[in-house]
Amino acid sequence: MDILICAACARPLTDAVRLMDAVPDLPPWDGSPGPDGLRRSPATMPRGRYAVQPDHRGAPFVPCPEEDEDAYDGIHPGGPWASDERGWLVSAGPRNQYVLHLDDVLPLDLHPEPLRSSGCCGAAGADGPNRVCACGAEVATLYADCSTPYEILFAPGAVRVVPAPRPGGPIPDHPRSCRTYE
């Protein structure tokens, strides 16, 4: 089991999670509200698990290469479609982000730029990282809109994956060894 910690301050950002071999296929969703009344797709990741997303995800968005326009499948495979005056757009955001279920993430702060959390029914993740660590470092992008998968992605340069400590034990690689994981 592992936890993700902030690369800037080593604060734990997640509960203990286990690595999966791949990101699961997106679950089917008909657009109807869920039991909680919210319009969002089912979670991409099961609770207690994380995976590495090999595809580009998130901002910035660049024009789709002309030779790929006939096979266009959204800003990322299976994602929402987007275009501007340049044509169809695809993600040029980071690769190899860590994908988690939102309920496995410890409380994070909203990004100070309100636009980063914009969306229709929730954060769309289209404007870059929208969650920050308590130290102020940009660490994750929440996708919770009616047009996106329901997931949170941590940029690999913003976090470190470390073995999960035993409850009450010191946080691995933490500069102040007296700090503990609860």
UniProtKB/TrEMBL annotation:
Which superkingdom is the protein from? Bacteria
**Chain residue ranges for the region called Disordered:** 25-52
Report what the protein is called.
Cysteine-rich CPCC domain-containing protein
Source organism of this protein record: Streptomyces roseoviridis
Lineage from the top down?
Bacteria, Bacillati, Actinomycetota, Actinomycetes, Kitasatosporales
